Amino acid sequence: MRVTIAEVAQRAQVSKATVSRVLNGKPDVDAATAVRVRQVIADVGYVPSARAVGLARGRTRTVGMLVPSLTWPWAGEVVQGAVDELEAEGYGLLLYTVNQGAESLTRFAGHVSAKAFDGLLVIEPPDTSGHIETLHGQGLPVVVIDDRDNRPGFPSVATTNREGAQAAARHLMSTGRERFAVVTGPAHFGCVKERLDGFLDALMAADVHVDPRLVVEGDFGTDGGTIATEKLLATGRPFDAVFAHNDLTALGVIRSLQAADRTVPDDVAVVGFDDIPIAAHTGLTTVRQPMRDMGSTAARLLLSRFEGNSLSLDPVVLPTTLVPRRTA
Q1: Per-residue pLDDT at 54
Q2: Would you tell me the crossing angle of helices 5-12 and 16-23 to the nearest 10 degrees?
Q3: Which of 27, 29, 220, 309 has the most CB within a 10 Å radius?
Q4: Rounded mean pLDDT, 48-57
Q5: Cβ atoms < 10 Å from Cβ of 170
Q6: Over 90: is that where the pLDDT of 143 sits?
């Protein structure tokens, strides 16, 4: 059954006239109210007509943002960076997640067809690259926020995965560590290859080699870090340092080491990647990604495109920073 504007108004606790004004980009709607209405529109899958979204005007002053899930540990920081930039310029944000797979994408496609937003920011969910490429090819301004793969044809914002991993390796060597293990993320992510290559390259430059049996794939989650560390311990190969490909994995590594009566960092040093808020609370040494800056930079690129500027297809690369704490 098609969702009506009345249902949107009821859920957002506003009048139908207010919903209509939001859809048409009228300036006489409180910013917080406009954001709430747009979020309800996204949540219930309301697809406004071309008239409602102001095709004749050509602009909605709304940006869509497609993310895998808000449960991703750093997604909130990226989204907040984008929101700060967009709202400062009088734009609202429609947030789309892909928690329901194909159903979510169908709902999203409906909003695209109705021209409910002027451009799209993407933290790309799995298996959507073809769809995003089609939208971009049809003229929708798109900026990708991520570094998992090379994306020719897309303006994008990335970070220095390889250099960050090299910094992690050099830091561990500077503390006297000699036998290294790695818990990667899923192999199909481009950032995993960059982080692994950077880490191993820095070690090789110092004539240090890693036993292949001490490189184990995780899943970017805490439980995956725990399971991967159990596999490392089961090899019987000695190691005194672990580079985990994100902070949640690193926390799982620490949990598993402690369960095996290995102290951190005395017996084994641990370094993560991301610097999500829990890293500081747990004293985790990590490589900081500028997550909020990635969101705000991507938003600025999209706003520049709206002003008629062409965008480079070379990614805007923001630097990572090593953050030493207690674990290494």
Answers
A1: 44
A2: 100
A3: 220
A4: 45
A5: 15
A6: yes
Higher pLDDT, 202 or 92: 202
240, amino acid identity: D
Question: What average pLDDT does this structure show over 27-53?
Answer: 75
* Paired tokens of 20: 């209509």
For residue 109, report the phi and psi dihedrals to the nearest 5 degrees.
Answer: -60, -35
pLDDT tens digits for range 315-327: 899 999 999 999 9
CB atoms within 10 A of CB 239: 22
Q: How far does Cα 275 stand from its chain's mean position? A: 13
Mean residue pLDDT across the chain: 87
d(CA 255, CA 61): 47
Q: By C-alpha distance, which of 68, 57, 161 is closest to 118?
A: 57
Q: Which residue, 207, 149, 227, 212, is CA-closest to 182?
A: 212
Write the DSSP assignment of 6-63 as a string of letters. HHHHHHHTS-HHHHHHHHTT-TTS-HHHHHHHHHHHHHHT----TTTTTTTT---SEE
Token code pair at residue 316:
């805007």
Structure tokens at 98: 């892909």
| Closest listed residue to residue 195, CA positions, set 260, 102, 289, 309 | 289
| Distances in whole angstroms, Cα of residue 209 to Cα of each of 12, 185, 235 | 59, 20, 17
Q: Name the residue type at position 284.
A: L
pLDDT of amino acid 325: 98
| Strand 321-323 with 285-288, pairing | antiparallel
Q: When comparing pLDDT for 324 and 151, which is higher?
A: 324
Domains, in order of start, for the chain? 5-159+292-318 (3.40.50.2300), 161-289 (3.40.50.2300)
